[in-house]
Fold this protein.
Amino acid sequence: GTVDGATQGPEGALRTRGTLKLTGSGLDAVTAGGTRVTLAQVEATIDGSHQAGARSASATADVRLDASGLAAVTSSGSRLTLARVEGTLSGGQGEAGEDAKGDLVLTGLEVLGGAGVQAPTLRESEVRARFEAARATDGRITLAALDVAALQALRLRATTPLSILPGDAGTAQVSGDAEVQADLGKIAALKALVPALESLETGALSASLRARPGPGLDIALGARLTNLVLAPGELVAQGYRDPDITLQAGANLQAGKIGGF
């Protein structure tokens, strides 16, 4: 890595900039739960700067990541592989607060949800994730953009900026809208990695969520599930299937109370 510094301005502001580059190959590790993780190659570059003066200070950091040949195999035989992961992350801190943004692309994703030939499989040629967030000096957190998109299984996005202003006694003012579309049959391949999905077989989900501040927090949820099939298990002993489910619900949350459904 390299670092350089200079003194500038009448107030003697000190600015330092640096670059750090990390590379690795042939990584192999086993987690405490028995999952083996291997990584063929990884490269990360970090660019950072810091400026401090008599009245203010600021800092920025930019990270570029490029990794290939990622694989994780659980003790039960479930397997996750990624051909490549690449993306950027950046953040900064100054007088107005803090901000961060990221853009990540996963290519060649495959999840095998078990060891047998009938095990559910999720294959995605590309998955993209992008976000932009900021935290103001008054504590308000704003998620200006959020978008997670897999070509077949999932699309999650914020349709309006999400704003959260923490209050007293664990309360918060929240405002924002989000929507999700999901192929639950594809996501079922993750059941070996996410036990809560154990009974999930097939289904399609389309849902929207709206939050608005007021006296308390107003929440509105709309969802539609089609061709839902749950296998017999702990969640539903006899299994469950329904060709079409529609849900509309609203609630107002105030000081630990829920009302308005």
Q: What stands out?
A: The longest strand covers residues 13-30. The chain has a mean pLDDT of 85.
